[in-house]
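Reviewers of the previous submission asked for a worked example of the structure-prediction workflow described in the proposal, so we include one complete record here. The input consisted solely of the amino acid sequence. No template or homolog information was supplied to the procedure at any stage.
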Amino acid sequence: MWSCGMASLLLLLQLAGLGVALAAAGLILVSVIAFITATKMPPCHQHEEEKFFLNAKGQKETLPSIWDSPTKQLSVVVPSYNEEKRLPVMMDEALNYLEKRQEQDPRFTYEVIVVDDGSGDQTSKVALKYCQKYGSDKVRVITLKQNRGKGGAVRMGVFSSRGEKILMADADGATKFPDVEKLEKGLSDLRPWPDQMAIACGSRAHLEKESIAQRSYFRTLLMYGFHFLVWFLCVKGIRDTQCGFKLLTREAAARTFSSLHIERWAFDVELLYIAQFLKIPIAEVAVNWTEIEGSKLVPFWSWLQMGRDLLFIRLRYLTGAWRLERTRKMS
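From that input alone, the workflow returned the following structure tokens.
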């Protein structure tokens, strides 16, 4: 009896040891794959046509650089992919707010940069109507030759901005645009800014209970799984990393986006991972948000891709495949 018990215990210990060994081997294998498949910094190269924007008269003008001195108080970067239907609603709300703010305070200056991420529809044409209406000093359209992904589109807009502060805003208009004032207060509350760097993230975390009630169990499970992976692998202390409404000081934008590798949906996580690594202060600010139909995310596959990206972000920085650089100018 005693010998049978010992034999069973030894078998369990052997199985446990085998499981640990297999898990360790799996982690090593994934780390090796992450290291080998890691690309260096995504090319910041612009196609020749992407170095220009069309002014209100249809003439080409050279885009500025984030490395230039700022000439506006606020730049709004709007990444857009096949957004001909949803973009007008967002642009109308944003420009109405910005124009009224400028009327109340003539010292306030702004620009809106729509980045067409290789759309197959009339996104650029729709955006150019606003350029013609408000002038190319206030509205500019950058049309990318090929699709780079949301992160790549935002980066191209950031690198061509003129603002002291740079706001990322989604083309669907899900976040009420006047909430930019909440982000500005969030930034102000972080003063003094180290090296003039700070970030305010719009957050939908306060709406989580309501969203759970409207979602299927499967989508809720995916959401919690993603949040856990973000916390466990990459970013601590930020409950909502994926809200597309973020305000950065010019210095913070230059520093983080010049080190960014991920160009698709998980880019927000790497952006905040870089910011936390560099000790850039971050405020999370509750904003008004409404789900808008027409999302480009495919629930299961997009979350699966983002989960893979999260694991690779962590492993690639951990193994030294990716290294943070101080600054890097666009070629």
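The chain has ten helices and nine strands. We consider this example representative of the routine output the project will generate in years two and three.
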